[in-house]
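Troubleshooting log. The previous structure file for this entry was overwritten by mistake, so regenerating from the original sequence record. Sequence copied from the archived sheet and checked twice against the printout by T.R.
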Amino acid sequence: MNISRMVVLIVCVFLFSCSYHTETANKNKTNKTNSTSSTTCRIAFYNVENLFDTDDDLHINDNDFLPSGKLNWTAERYQGKLQHIKKVMDGLNNNQTLALFGMAEVENKKVLEDLLEKDTAYQIIHYNSSDNRGIDVCLLYNSSYFTPLTSYLSSYKSDASPKVTLREVLVVKGILWRDTIYVLVNHWPSRREGEEESEHKRASAASVTSHVIDSISKNNPSANIIVMGDFNDQPNDKSVLSISTPNKSTGKNEDITNPFMAKQNAGEGTCKYKRNWFLFDQILINTSLMNKKGCQFVSAEIYDPEWLYYKEDLKSGPYRTYLGNKYYGGYSDHFPVYIELKK
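Regenerated output below.
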């Protein structure tokens, strides 16, 4: 055998070896990912603190979030915000298990498309709400886990004051693995006017959510229901309890449970005011997800890695984008929450 043939033979053997090891590694990696994604998944919620683009929308009051606005919301700051939210999303997507991702305080569908520009795994469910500030809720879903069937915004109710309206609830029905589930994404009125002064607004919001739950349960008593959102009240507050505590006269909502009650009892929270933690962001589930058939609840967690704290100081609070008019350049004034399910 001459030298040239020997060289060709060696090169061929080398290339075959590399190809074999690469293919084997990829198969092992794929099998591991598919195995994980087929047995467990995460469902998360995140109030992203004013995700606005830099364009002026004449139909809403987004004047503060413009390059010429008082917050000096530039293209650079907008891109930084998108990168931060994507980092959180990637962190939640441990082992590719993030199936559903609810969000609050997004301006429109465009900001979601910008967020997912380089991520083809997720699809968007979003509707423009009636909120005059233009901050909406949405649901992102991984189509390898979830197939949407129907979605809509619930009709909102006027509060006792004719000048006050409530944000609609995003209701999504779909197939998770092989089970039909309903997901309700909420953003209830804030406490900006004071906790007691605004309590009636959150009570009204709770009645809207309860009405949706009751409507679903009436048509399908064994339905799997997930209620997520920024409730601006804690698990032990009246408004949230009204969803998870049965009505003595009607028995409605008797099977909704709040796994984040234990987190509150342990002193944990998702946002901080002065020195106090508040657990406003929660995911509630019904007993159909607690039994041994189909999807099963595993755990409920607050996602708060060190880098989501201001200056990475665990004694501080969430590393936010703004505090008043001052730009901090962080992620959000809330931590995300998630639950894990298995089948």
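Helices lie at 3-39, 75-92, 109-115, 199-219, 238-244, 261-265. Archived copy saved in two places this time.
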